[in-house]
Amino acid sequence: MTLRVGFCGIGRMGTEMVSALTRQGFTVTVWNRTLARALAVAEHTGAEVAGTPGLAARNADVVITMLTDGNAVLRTLDDILPGARKGLVVVDCSTTGAQAAREAADRCAAAGVGFVDCPVSGSTVVARQGKLGLMAGGDVATIERIRPVLDALGTVVHVGPTGAGAAAKVSSNALLHTFSTALAECLVTARAAGVSTTALFDVLSVGVLWNRFLDYKRPAFTDPEGTAVAFDLHTATKDLGLAAGAADDAGLRDSVVRRALELHRHALDDGLGDRDMAAMTAWFAARADPPGLTERY
């Protein structure tokens, strides 16, 4: 039997994940706080639309949540769990942090519902291809029961018990955003010395630092005006806040992540929050003395 999927949260990533699922033959019912977005996704994927999270879950075997933060996940569960059907498994792909994942799991367990914290790694392009990295925390048997759905989205790594998936995502994002911040700074310093952004990416592409992130994010750095926003600075800053909290919990006195968070908060104060995360390049350039050539970023 093909598992039926409810999907709650149709943002940039959620849209592409629904597309990957429907292309591989899954019946998907979507819910989004903004109905128009859910209707648009349904129109090009064939998914059904539900008016509430509970209705999206009503006939589902698996409900995927892809929401802003832990509070949004818990509010959505408040609507799903009272009418949850036997055998339902909630898979939270949001970036929430370990504590929020454990609280969500406890609420699901009290309602007799399975739970897997399973954040994802990758861009909208990777999500569209069904090639995300999924870091799953929770019971192995539960994960195996819903594996066809997870495999349709990408490659699954079981990282440990409940909360481990969320914790792995926070650590992964800490590396991602500090790397991206350092890249933005280096692009500006290289440009000031006469090396174009394109040329530096060409150098990186033949060196040991080349990676999947540099590959798919290259257009956002080299052609920001012509590239759609894939991951905005508001969300990046939220993720860095979770990572800084993890550094605090680990007792770290010094933290690269905390400094990256400070820089991102300054960029938000300067009005760049809705731009792609690559806009940290423009922020560094604008803050230079004298200001750099910000129109290039």
Task: Describe this structure as you would to a colleague.
This protein has 2 domains: 5-161, Rossmann fold (3-Layer(aba) Sandwich); 167-296, Orthogonal Bundle (N-(1-d-carboxylethyl)-l-norvaline Dehydrogenase, domain 2). Helix 2 (35-45) links the parallel strand 2 (28-31) and strand 3 (48-49). It has helices at residues 12-23, 35-45, 53-57, 70-80, 98-110, 124-128, 140-145, 147-153, 164-192, 197-205, 212-222, 233-249, 256-269, 280-287; strands at residues 5-8, 28-31, 48-49, 62-65, 89-92, 114-117, 120-121, 132-137, 154-160. The radius of gyration is 20 Å and the shape is globular. The strands form 2 sheets. Strands 3-2-1-4-5-6 form a 6-stranded parallel β-sheet, sandwiched between helices. It has a 3-stranded mixed β-sheet with strand order 7-8-9. It is built from 14 helices and 9 strands. By secondary structure, it is an alpha/beta fold. The termini are far apart.
Comma- or semicolon-separated keywords:
297 residues; alpha/beta; Rossmann fold; N-(1-d-carboxylethyl)-l-norvaline Dehydrogenase, domain 2; three-stranded mixed sheet; 14 helices; 9 strands
Largest sheet: 6 strands, parallel
Number of distinct helices:
14
| Total of domains | 2
Radius of gyration: 20 Å
Structural class: alpha/beta
The helix fraction, in percent, is: 40-55%
Question: What CATH first level of the largest domain would be assigned?
Answer: Alpha Beta
CATH superfamily of the largest domain: NAD(P)-binding Rossmann-like Domain
Apparent shape: globular
Series of H and E elements? EHEHEHEHEHEEHEHHEHHHHHH
The mean pLDDT is: 95
Which fold name is given in CATH as the topology of the largest domain?
Rossmann fold
Report how far apart the termini are. 50 Å
Low-confidence spans: none
